[in-house]
Amino acid sequence: MEKIWFYTTLLQIKEVIQNAEIKIPKRGRGNRATPCIWLSTNTDWDETPRIILFKNTYDLDEAEENQFTARIELAPACKLMNWKHYKRTQSISQKQIHEVESFGYSMGFGIDKWYYVKDNIPNTYWIRVQYFNGQKWVNYSRKH
Fold first, then answer.
1. Has residue 108 got a pLDDT over 60?
2. pTM
3. Residue 46, pLDDT score
4. Integer Cα distance of 70 and 58 in angstroms
5. How far apart are CA 21 and CA 32, in angstroms?
6. What residues have CB less than 8 Å from 1, skipping those under 6 apart?
7. What is the 3-state secondary structure (H, E, C) of the chain?
8. Domain residues for 87?
9. Could you read off the pLDDT of 1-45 as tens digits, one per residue?
10. Is 78 a member of any domain?
11. Does residue 31 fall inside a structural domain?
């Protein structure tokens, strides 16, 4: 089985660790999609669905500029739902679906690697926490 990753920024990972769980983000204003936690089996940074669907909750430019990317590997016990299920069950427009998929493909990320969960993920499901130091993924320690 492929590894399952939750991607975020180094700034946000500190709060996630302090809370001892990955929390579902608040709904974006005017967005009809149900908030959820986006996950990926892509080993590179892949936040395409969350960035497009919840634009006001994340500063993509800051993360790319500073390369402050972090991720948590999750145990396969998490109940995952795939992107196809999400598009079928959410009140999102065909335009939004197309935007998400087009952006993902343009970045080299396949929609077959996108998953989501509807519940918070406690740290009992975490395998490891890492951040990208500009060259490679390294294990996160509280010193960062």
1. yes
2. 0.76
3. 54
4. 14
5. 25
6. 76
7. CCCEEEEEEHHHHHHHHHHCEECCCCCCCCCCCCCCEEEECCCCCCCHHHHHHCHHHCCHHHHHHHCCEEEEEECCCCCCEEHHHHHHHCCCCHHHHHHHHHHHHHCCCCHHHEEEECCCEEHHHEEEEEEECCCCEEECCCCC
8. 4-22+36-139
9. 689 999 888 888 889 999 999 999 876 545 667 788 889 888 876
10. yes
11. no
Number of domains in the chain: 1
Residue 29 lies in a domain: no
Q: Indicate whether 51 belongs to any domain.
A: yes
pLDDT at res. 135: 79
CA 88 to CA 135: how far, in whole Å? 38
97 vs 26: which has the higher pLDDT? 97
What CA–CA distance (Å, rounded) separates 141 from 47? Answer: 23
113 C-beta neighbours (distance < 10 Å), count: 20
Question: Per residue in 48-89, pLDDT tens?
Answer: 544 544 454 445 555 444 446 889 999 987 788 888 888 888
